[in-house]
Amino acid sequence: MNHAQPSKIAQRLMDHVARIQSEREREQAKTIERLPFTIRRVHNHAQLAKAVAIRHKAYARHIPEFAQTLILPEACDFDSDTVILLAESKLDGSPLGSARIQTNLQQALHVEESVHLPHWLQGKRLAEVTRLGIEEGRIGRLVKVALIKACFEYCERNQIEWAVVTGRTPIDRQYEQLLFSDVFDDKQPVPLRHVGGIAHRVMAFEIASGEARWEAAGHPLLGFFRHTRHPDIDLAARLPALVRRGVVPAVARQAVGPTFGLVAA
Fold this sequence. Notes:
With 265 residues, the protein is an alpha/beta fold. It has helices at 8-29, 45-62, 64-67, 137-157, 171-177, 210-217, 222-226; strands at residues 31-32, 37-41, 82-89, 95-103, 126-134, 162-167, 181-182, 190-191, 199-206, 228-229, 233-234. It has a single domain (31-234), classed as Gcn5-related N-acetyltransferase (GNAT) (Aminopeptidase), CATH 3.40.630. It contains 7 helices and 11 strands. A hairpin with a 7-residue loop joins strand 8 and strand 9.
């Protein structure tokens, strides 16, 4: 008996369902590990105040003059294409770290106020991670790794192709260890407007190949990033952007690519 072959649309649907099932099985097989803190998206002004406080505190330790500009929320904290992640202690709710993610789905990245990204990043789905700030000490190191994992997960869920970061010395070495590569061939730091004119290296990480590259390198964080499930990292909630409260409107930035029909989750 001849069986009709499924149409291309039906085949794509079956492949998609199979992929979801495979990912679900893989997720269920992961080791579950609890953290002494939670990482969630900021969705109200009390949480934003905590994120801003830890951000300012972290920057004040290393670049105090620039930190004075971070005492209050920045206008871009309220942009619809921006997500702020906040790590809070389970013990007392105190802020332990924060990071900001901005995509180019609606406007250009902040780094593009200062540099023109190379052609291989043009028209790609990009996300820039900025304002990574953590508490000092051992707990801060764990919070940093967990925030980085949360940023990678956010990029995957939103079909981001490249994560972009900027790093001053010696922070740039930490991104190198995570297998970020320099965007520019000369690997030289460049002054950036959104970090007070301080020279930073501009670096990028291809999301799709990340796990394979970590595995090939025998990266010590592979297990934490890819083989362990952390329920305390919760990015699932789809929430509206924060409502501005007397904040100077952000300077308009021209988008570098199409929106791809995606909504940042």
